[in-house]
Design brief:
This protein is an alpha/beta fold. The chain contains eleven helices and 14 strands. A seven-stranded parallel sheet has the order 3-14-13-8-4-5-7, sandwiched between helices. β9 and β10 form a beta hairpin.
Amino acid sequence: MIAPTRYPIQRRTAGANVWLGRAGDNAEAALAALTPQTLAYEVLDAEEAVGRAMLAELETTASKKHGDLTIILLGGRGAQAMHRLLGHLAKTDQIDQLLNRLNVFTQDALAPMRMENSFSFVRDFERLLGEDFFRKVKSFTSMSTATNDLEAGLVNYLASLSARGEIDLLFLGLGPEAGGASHLAYIKPGSGAGATDLAGVIPVSSSILEHHITKFKAGGSAVSPADEAECRQATHILTLGPAAFLRAKRIVQSIVDADTAPAKRASFQRLVETEIADDPDIRGRQLDENPGLWVRLHPNVRSLILPNVLA
C-alpha cells in the first residue's frame, strides 16, 4: 500500500464555503492561463451506448499507459450503464488485467451521513459494480462522511489522491441549477471555487439535495424512509474542486437523464453557448455563477449525451 503523500494545504473561505488547495498556488494566474474550449459533444442513441463508450475510454486509457491507473468515478445516473458493464465483466476474467491496475476514487459526497446509507454514492457503486469489482481493483478510496471533522477527512483523501500521481481519467456529469446554470461534482453556483482549489466543504443547498435524492430514486436504488430522512439532514457537501478537474489528463462527461431532470436541457444549452471571457475578473464571475463552465477550460474533454438533452 502506498503511504499518502503529505503536502502543505492552504485553507481559504468564501462565505460559508471552505476550499482546500496547495499552499502557494496563485489562483488568479492559474485562471488567466487557461484557454476556453468549444464543447464538441456527441449524441448517442441510448444510455447503454453511452456506457459502452465510457468503458471504451477506460480501456483506451489503459492501453496507452503501463502500470497503475488512477480514475475518478461519477456517481448518479450518468455512469450507471458503464458501472453495470464493469460489474458484469468483473464476474469473469476478461478485464482482470485492467481491474488489477485501477486505483479508484470518488468525487463527492453528502455529509455527515453514515457510509451505510443507501443514498451514499459508495452504496450505489457497490450495488452496480458488485463485490468482484471491488475485490479485483488495486484500491478504492472514498470521501469520509461519518466523521466529526469533515475538513481533516478531506485532507486525508487529497493526500491519498496525490500519492497516486496523475489522474488518468475523470468521469463527470452535469447537474442543473436555477437559470440554466449548472454544477460539476457538487460545486454549486456562488460557492467561490477557484482554479487552484482541489476540494471543498460547502453548505448543502436545497436544490442539490433534491437533485441527489431524485436521481438515486430514478436510478433504481433501494432506499428506505429512514435513509432518506438521514440524507435530508445532511448539512454539507464534500466535493472535488476545479484544480482536481484541471489536473486530470482526460475528462469524459456523460449526461443521460434529461427525462428525470429536465432542467439539464437549459443547463447544457448554456454550457455550450456561453462565451467565456478573456478578462480574468469577468471569467471568474462567470465560473462562480455557472460552475459547469469549468469543463470548458480543460483541453481534453469528450462529452457524451442523449438526444433528450438537447433543448
